[in-house]
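Hi Y.,

Following your request, here is the sequence exactly as I used it, all 396 residues.
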Amino acid sequence: MIGGLLAVWAFGLHGAALQAQSAYQQKVWRYVPAPGQFIDAAMLAEPETDSAGLAALDEAAVCAFLTEKMAGKSNGRLLSLGAYGGYVVLGFDHRIPNGPGLDLRLYGNAYYAGGHGADSETPGGSAEPGIVYVSRDDNGDGLPNDTWYEIDGSETDAPQTVADYRIVYYRPAPLDADVFWRDNQGDSGYIYRNTYHTQDSYYPWWLPGDSLVFSGRRLPDNAVDEGADGRQAWFLRAFDYGYADNHPNDSEGALVDIDWAVDADGRPVSLDSIDFVMIRTGVRQNTGWTGEVSTEVAGVEDVHCLSAGPTGIEDLDGGRTAWCVYPNPCADRFAVEGVPARLRLYDAQGHCVGHRDISEAGHVVWEVAALQPGLYLLEVRNGADTAPVYYKILKK
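Below is the corresponding structure, written out as tokens. Let me know if you'd prefer a different format.
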């Protein structure tokens, strides 16, 4: 039986090859970063690209290049959004359902410093929170031009959050000068150059015009200098939930739920699915010699996708299941969330290599570091008389 199910991974019920969807973004629609120390040629082109080729770049060429590098991957290219307001818009090869539990995993480069893990009172280390927006292609033209809904995070209504923030960055002259900015709160300042990043410009030179304007919600400052004796040692606190590049990629904090979406007035909206994701740097803060707080994005994952989560007999006809499996592919461990169930894991030869139970807590973490890389089949059954559900697991 298990051997037959393994064959279903590759072929449909009538012998036709399945056209697997990608769990990850397939297109970079927009890339409009704010100025920052990581806005440079190395991020936008291969090292052998000459200066004339770089000078000829425009946003369309940049997005085409980034699409090539990031399509179908969670780590194809680490993309800096620069200082406050910079953003990227990502599209997928399928409509992402609002499934059971959390829906999207956001990949960045956040990490916890020693003693400040997820269970501590002050989680963080390097966290540069980006605000997440989702949109559905309601007009059916395939373009990200419909209404955007913000994911309601833990800091949405925090006392220090500015709901209607607006900032203007001015193109420097010469291009290798510090970048001046002014906002609608009566403040102004610079994105300062530093000795660690000496490229021609911190300003995204390929974008037209003499200035860049960004507006939206500004999150509270999250960086604290814990240094002593005049030496800076910055700790960047992670917000509780709801943001990109805020918690490590393999943590629950890197997940968001489409159910958290709100409209421009802060009212919850009911979305059964989405087509596009936008991520925007949410903090405007300078951290001394380490530079500006800037959200980094490596990818977005649909955790319900066939290549990332549920698959098997019930899913071949588009059925929905009551469990979430992530991350997938996995290296050392994967988690299963959902209603209580009995779990069994089979290797490609159909041998059972372990079993677990989801208790009333609705969550179990399965350590698989000792298993050989390859494909596995997870059987989930929530009653002796019910048919099992199967999930394809890729162990890296």
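Confidence is low (pLDDT under 50) at residues 3-19, 306-320.

Thanks again,
Q.
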